[in-house]
Amino acid sequence: MTRDVVSVTEETPAADIAILLEADRIKRVPVLHDGRPVGIGSRANLVRALAVTIAAAPVGTDAADYAIRDRLIAELRSQRWAEVAPANITVKDGLVHLWSSYISEAERRALIVAAEGIPGVRRIEDHMRAVGSDGHS
Question: 57-130 adopts what CATH topology?
């Protein structure tokens, strides 16, 4: 049994739960309402939610966003140090969201710089977490 139980609330975004599960290498997390358990969030829940969103083309996503994402993925694949899964990169209206985990601050910064170098990128949202991070700096 774990003494320091990680939990989320009903209001915690699915993306934040996914990052938490990945970073802490856990499969399930208690969901609380007013400090009381009301459910369990699991990797399987997140996979099902993702499957629903992948089934249909994203509304409002244009060719420019797909091109930005494709170029960034190609750039990262060409780098030996970059181990970012394509599912961890989303682009909407030129805004790049990075959802990966990283080993060092230099690696995190390099991922951001790689994204900044892609034509059409307006801004980067850094949702990345250090491997083994507990969410505290």
Answer: Histidine-containing Protein; Chain: A; (3.30.1340)
Share the mean pLDDT of the chain: 81
Superfamily of domain 8-54: CBS-domain (3.10.580.10)
Q: Which residues are within 8 A (CB) of 34 and not within 5 positions of it... i.e. 6 or more apart?
A: none
Q: What digits encode the pLDDT tens for the residues 105-135?
A: 998 999 999 999 999 999 999 988 887 654 4
Backbone torsions φ then ψ of 25, nearest 5 degrees: 55, 50
3-state SS assignment for residue 31: strand
Q: Where are the beta strands (DSSP E) in 27-134?
A: 28-33, 36-42, 89-92, 95-98, 101-102, 123-126, 129-130
Asked if 96 and 124 touch (Cβ cutoff 8 Å), the reply is yes
Check: pTM over 0.70? Answer yes or no: no
pLDDT digits (tens, 9 = 90+) for 3-19: 778 898 888 888 788 88
